[in-house]
Specification:
Layout lengths: L7 H6 L1 H4 L10 H13 L4 E2 L4 E4 L1 E4 L2 E9 L5 E4 L4 E6 L7 E10 L5 E10 L7 H6 L5 E12 L9 E5 L4 E4 L16 E11 L2 E13 L8 E2 L1 H6 L6 H4 L5 E13 L4 E6 L2 E6 L11 H5 L9 E11 L2 E5 L6 E5 L5 H11 L5 E2 L3 E4 L11 E6 L5 E4 L2 E4 L7 E11 L2 E11 L8 H8 L12 E15 L4 E8 L2 E8 L12 E6 L1 E4 L2 E4 L4 E3 L4 H13 L12 E15 L4 E8 L2 E8 L12 E6 L1 E4 L2 E4 L4 E3 L4 H13 L7 E20 L4 E8 L2 E8 L12 E11 L2 E4 L4 E3 L1
Parallel strand pairs: 1-8, 14-15, 21-27, 30-33, 37-40, 44-46
Antiparallel strand pairs: 2-6, 3-4, 4-7, 5-6, 7-8, 9-10, 9-12, 10-11, 12-13, 15-16, 15-18, 16-17, 18-19, 18-20, 22-25, 23-26, 24-25, 26-27, 28-29, 28-31, 29-30, 31-34, 32-33, 35-36, 35-38, 36-37, 38-41, 39-40, 42-43, 42-45, 43-44, 45-46, 45-47
């Protein structure tokens, strides 16, 4: 029989990591092992209709124990021992219920042992009707039979093995089968039986911990049930009359194609003023392997009427469809419209992003997609950062502050004309920020939005949200940084399987707001040993070596490395030199490098360089007029760049992110206020004076001339004075 619940192997292998620390008194080790094993499996007691596994070896506090499993019955349950795992072999089709006690005997190296028991029951086998399935509570054992309408297989690119199938009375969904349906030889139209337990997820009925077997290899054609009237007459997408037949293959006639969000897999349609969608999931969808075929040409059918067919699915109790074939949409026609309505229709279909955080180009249509008689002309309010030429919008990122831009589309057809404005923000780069700036931007993100570029934060693991996956080589943890919690979703990196609460790690990745949770997105990476400085340089190098030929990064970057070659000797006339330096194993050229001591640079010198990184004919280099220092740290060089930006601000302007500067107090223009708990001071930063207006923080009342402080806040030019704005904070 098939082994089920194999995911427990992962939990078992993690026992060592999760065990308590510290020495135990003599004689308590076996008791601790017993308690730990009980905690592992106490919630797994109860109904066990299929085979499952339990650990054969336990490691607690660095001590290894053997675990011998036994049952108190002879029929219906047997034990198959393995080196790492023991299989509890269950007769799934027992005529009568079989209650049994599962006993674990835990032994140490000296032969001492202790036992712990778990109560289980194999349920009597029963063929489940659709009505029983629909009414069953979560955790109920079910055995359902029907004709397969949709197959999801890891072999074909899905993340889980699943089946949609139905009988004459209703339909079923088996999630995460123990075996790949392709390997089992299951095909659409065959009749299968699925045994498992019912679960309910976001309103969806599922059969989980499931086993599928073929009942009949003959193929039956399943006709989609016409749900047009039910959809039309439903009060909303959660109407019980519409949703009760979930997992059934259905069709709707005469829908209007209203949009497509290809990136997220949504293909929207409307009927009777209710808008729903066909969803292509990259993880669980019967046509995942053929999704590109499904997508091709769909965007050209916006506004068309169509027939649509798919599996009736629910999200949060609301109706949507999952396609079982690439021709889920049967496109019919575009309706006749007046000139005014054609313009309005095409205007509704025009889309531009509400913000841009990366340099990109966007093709702007010159005519309607559906109604070719509609002509479209485009204008921009800012040729510098949002230029339009030859039907292409080119986005260029500003260096320091966001730019608000308006692009206008003018649509004409016959004598009809209308305009549509797109107001959006072009964001200045927001990577290589200080910790406070990253946290400020991260927790200000709107739901569904992400920060541009990769961020780096170092913090302490406060919780293991999802245990390490041997299959996917990742783990989900919560990270505490400066008193705030950021989730690290599916975190990757060497040693991820050994991460534990309390570990300090440096994390690199894209930060987003996912349904209210601020998190590093999937595929973020970590290191226990890498410093924030080194991790940020790695991000800079990644961006630099991804530049297209002739392109340059925005603003000035800072890198630290070792001179490996003098490419062009120092010029007395131009006061510069060209060198190659090695940074984290990669070579970056520093073209016409400037700075005190440039005439004395030699191979082997360690230097910090700042300037504009570009790709010049395939060579990644700091452009001319880059600067260097042997004495400055990377952070000090970044402060040099920050000061340069701040003192270049026009009056009334501010940098669009929080900055951090360290300096010495030279003057206290406004004494500490007991009422407002703030003070205004001037600090000397690398020879330049920056005012800290209404500075806040513990000990602000004791600040004195000569104190060295690090200030965090928004830098602005206020009537010619470069200052940190009100509510800036400090540390000593």
């Amino acid at each position: 029989m098939k082994k089920f619940l194999s995911y427990l192997l992962v939990a078992a292998m993690s026992v060592t990591l999760l065990a308590g620390c510290g020495k135990k008194e003599a004689g308590t080790e076996l008791t601790a092992a017993k308690d730990y094993l009980y905690s592992m499996y106490k919630d797994k007691q109860g109904t066990t209709p299929s085979d499952f596994e339990r650990v054969s070896v336990l490691n607690v506090g660095g001590v290894t124990y053997n675990v011998d499993w036994s049952v108190d019955v002879k029929d219906g349950v047997s034990i198959v021992k393995g080196a790492e795992m023991t299989t509890i072999d269950v007769n799934e089709e027992t005529e009568n219920a079989v209650p049994y006690v599962l006993t674990a005997t835990i032994s140490d190296a000296k032969g001492a042992n202790v036992s712990v028991t778990f109560n289980h029951e194999v349920p009597a086998y029963h063929d489940t009707t659709w009505a029983e399935y629909a009414e069953a509570k979560a955790g109920t054992v079910v055995n359902c039979t029907g004709v397969v309408t949709g197959i999801m297989s890891k072999t074909n690119g899905n993340s889980s093995n699943c089946l949609y199938f139905q009988d004459a009375d209703g339909a079923y969904y088996a999630y995460n089968l123990g075996e790949d349906p392709v390997d089992l030889g299951i095909e659409t139209g065959m009749t299968v039986k699925v045994s498992g337990t019912k679960d309910i997820y976001s309103g969806t009925y599922e059969i989980i911990n499931a086993k599928a077997t073929i009942v009949d290899t003959n193929k039956t054609e399943v006709a989609a049930v016409d749900y047009t009237d039910l959809y039309t007459n439903a009060e909303d997408l959660k109407d019980a009359n519409l949703t009760k037949a979930q997992s059934l293959l259905v069709s709707l006639k005469g829908v209007e194609i209203t949009g497509a969000d290809v990136a997220n897999g949504y293909f929207k349609f409307k009927l009777a003023d209710k808008e729903s969608y066909v969803r292509i999931s990259s993880s669980v969808c019967p046509i995942v392997a053929d999704k590109d075929t499904f997508i091709t040409g769909h965007g050209e059918h916006l506004g068309w009427t169509a027939n649509v067919t798919g599996i009736l699915c629910l999200y949060d109790g609301a109706f949507y469809l999952t396609p079982v074939s690439v021709d889920a949409f049967e496109y019919l026609s575009l309706p006749e419209r007046s000139d005014e309505d054609m313009c309005a229709f095409e205007a509704d279909n025009l889309k531009l992003s509400s913000s841009y955080s990366a340099e990109t180009t966007v093709e702007l249509p010159a005519e309607g997609k559906g109604y070719k008689d509609v002509k479209i002309a485009w204008t921009t309010s800012d040729d510098t950062f949002a230029a339009i030429a030859d039907g292409v919008l080119t986005i260029v990122l500003p260096e320091d502050e966001n730019k608000e831009v308006t692009v206008t589309a003018t649509l004409t057809a016959g004598a009809a004309s209308l305009t549509k404005e797109f107001n959006f923000v072009i964001e200045a780069p927001s990577d290589d920020l200080c910790e406070a700036a990253i946290l400020d931007k991260a927790f200000a993100l709107e739901e569904g939005k992400a920060m541009s570029g990769k961020q780096v934060l170092r913090g302490t693991v406060s919780e293991i949200v999802t245990e390490y996956s041997d299959e996917y080589k990742n783990i989900t943890v919560n990270l505490e940084v400066a008193g705030q919690t950021i989730q690290c979703f599916r975190l990757e990196g060497e040693g991820a399987d050994k991460l534990a609460v309390g570990d300090e790690i440096t994390v690199t990745g894209v930060i987003k707001n996912y349904k209210g949770t601020v998190e590093f997105d999937a595929k973020s990476t970590f290191s226990k040993d890498t410093t924030v400085e080194d991790a940020k340089m790695a991000v800079t190098l990644e961006k630099a070596f991804a530049l297209e030929e002739g392109k340059a990064m925005n603003g000035k970057s800072v890198l630290k490395g070792k001179v490996t070659e003098i490419v062009t000797e120092y010029s007395d006339e131009y006061k510069n030199i060209t060198v190659n330096m090695e940074v984290q194993g990669q070579t970056v050229q520093c073209f016409r490098l400037q700075g005190e001591g440039a005439d004395k640079l030699a191979v082997g010198d360690e230097i910090v360089v700042w300037g504009t990184l570009k790709n010049y004919k395939g060579t990644v280099e700091f452009d001319a007029k880059c600067e260097f220092s042997k004495e400055k740290t990377v952070d000090e060089a970044k402060q040099t760049v920050t000061l340069e930006k701040a003192f270049a601000l026009e009056e009334g302007k501010a940098l669009n992110y929080m900055s951090q500067l360290t300096g010495t107090i030279t003057e206290i223009p406004t004494e500490y206020s007991d009422e407002y708990k703030n003070v205004t001071v001037n600090i000397d930063c690398q020879g330049q004076t920056v005012q800290c207006f209404r500075l806040q923080g513990e000990g602000a009342d004791k600040l004195a001339v000569g104190d060295v402080i690090t200030v965090t806040g928004t830098l602005k030019n206020y009537k010619g004075t470069v200052e940190f704005d009100a509510k800036c904070t400090f540390t000593k």
